[in-house]
Amino acid sequence: MGLVLEHIDKSFDQFRAIQDLSMEVKEGTIFGFLGANGAGKTTTMRMILDILRPDRGSITWNGQDVRTVTRRNWGYLPEERGLYPKMRVDEQLLFLARLNGLAKQAAERELNDWLERFQITSYRKKKVEELSKGNQQKVQFLATILHDPLILIMDEPFSGLDPVNANVLREAFFEMHRRGKTIIFSTHQLEQAEEMCQDILIINKGQAVIQGSVREVKRQHGRNVVRLKLDNDAEASWLDSLAGVQVTKRRQDYIEMQIQADLNPNLIVEAALQHGGIISRFELAEPSLTDIFIERVGAAAQPDAPAVLSA
Amino acid sequence: MSQKITETPVSAPPEQEQPQAVTVDAGGSRLQNNIRNMRLIIVREYKAQIRQLSFKITTVIFLLLVIIGSFVPTVVQLITSHNKPQQTSVRVVNNAGSVAGLDNASLSRSIGTILNGASTSSTPTFAITVSSSDELASLQKQVKDGKLDVLLVLERASDQTLRFTYYSNSNAESDGNLSQVQSLVQQLNALDKMHRLGLTQAQIGSLYAAPNLSLVDVQPKSGQDTRPESEIVAGYLLAYAGDILVFIAVTLYGMGVAMGVGEEKGSRVMEILVNAATPLQLMVGKVVGIGAAGLTQLGAVVVIGIGAFLLQIPLQSVLFGPHGGNLTLSVTSAAIPVLLFLLLYFILGFLLYATIMAGAGALVKRQEEARNAVQLPLMLLMGGYIAGEIGVYYASSTWMKVLSFIPFFTPTTMLVRIAGGQVAWWEIVITIPLMLITIALCAWISARIYRSGILMYGQKPTLRQLVKLMGR
After folding, report:
1. A83 touches chain B (CB under 8 A)
2. Is residue B33 part of a domain?
């Protein structure tokens, strides 16, 4: 169950923003929504939140139309941050939490708790416009979660954060995850998605390109990659003549190659030893999401290539 | 990289959320929820508004204006009472012998009657002394020194005509006594000539008797304006002032609403607000909150204004003695209903225009553009205001009647008609539901625009698009 989108279409005038998009977000998971700028991530999120309405298709949460789901179950962090610039941090957050149905005392308790956790207690009486961008982002995050929603929809929550603040926010993500929240977030930092998400969806030009669990996606794109470094033979030109092996990169620190699925990687080690190589690195690597993203989105970006996908 | 996946807690969430936690709004709690949310929004808007620097500045300016305004009459009185001596001393040097057959004593009385009128006050405005040819040089010096205000010398020419010489300390343009002296001289001259022509006192008296003039007003009197003159004048003044007040206040606070919506759009806070509250809640909350802030400001101005005005009575009695003040605090019976209607039509007018302006504000991208977006409703309001100001003189005309039933113009024009005192009670009563229905309609349309305008950050929408948006 969880959140299910079925055959969603959405057009703005002539522009088809979303085409036949289907996806499923299981309850209690972290779901990564990946795509280039303008791919349709924000539009999809707005449709989930019933800010926009799809032209066709249905969006349900545990079988119930999202339009009828109580609003306070949703927490939304918009891509372009939205807070009252001249309102104090504490007043602002209390206002939003209470507007989302929280009682005053509960809202205050939650606020104190989270300000502490984010180490921004000293900013509580400050106006939002006086805060740094990173701290504004934290406040925005609090505005999203303070009323204890079930489903968090976050549009680029990590953009513009320094590594320290990004880590604080990452911890908060896991905390929400531990509390059983369903989290959908968009990003174009694929490594982050790889690290945090159970399931992902890559969207391009309004169409789903790949979706599924991170592991599954990788396995499906399982041309195995081998990284090899020989201390005494940086070039290892003999690799080029090895059957079933194709060298893709020769870097200072290693040589990267793709091997056929049925090839036993031990053969490469044996061949290296035969050539008298001293092995300082041998690694079997799955392709990173970045590789897959560039490969699939790059292909789908071709005008003639219809992006059909399967996951 | 890949091994990190396992770090993610894939395990099932520890606290199993019960599925029924997600429920549809129960019908009964919807109204409660509406009221709760609106109250929260109203309080936020009210606080945000009164904390604004521009709001504080306008409040201070308004208060200063009303305080200064209420002190003006007293100050003017103070200045004039200091400038002008209590009495104007008039010295007449009669070198012409008997004037109009009168000796100096009778002449002095006649001049007194001409200058002071029939007043029998112990300290008349003009103090007259009549004497015969003496110390002209020293009297002229007194005029020069300001000890004597008017020095009039009477002589007789060879053809027996009177010749007058007026010595004054000021030139003709700034001489406040010149006109009185001129009319005095004219009358003395005429009296003297009549006497020399041999007219009797009775004949002279009949010449000066007031002509028999009767005034007939041919203007048809529709209705019966039986109110005393002072009430009618007070009504007109109130209508004028009320019209201006409604116009300024609705413009000011209506703009505040449009700017507020523009701010929410510009800062994108709207995107998270619509998740928490309905567009109608947001709009009503904003309109009422800012309206309440406006009423607070007006209330402060009115209270301080009345206070400062009342302060003038003891102040004047200190400055000018117990009966010296000429301030009359006359709140006539006609003024009170006009004031109440002023409040009523201010509130209705504000609600109407503020809802329209909220919708207009929802169409803009940034706060700065709100000013342009409200031009159409502002023009409507301006039209009503001008009609009201002109209508003060045509309170019973047909076009004023028609305009006063069009809700957009009702606040300004009906107020004027009420002050004119020619409105049947049912006419007033009927405008209230008319306005309320229009407000509800405008609120509904604005809420639709609000709902769709949230995400409109592109160019200006066409009218067709607007209609389409509302249909969503």
Report:
1. yes
2. no
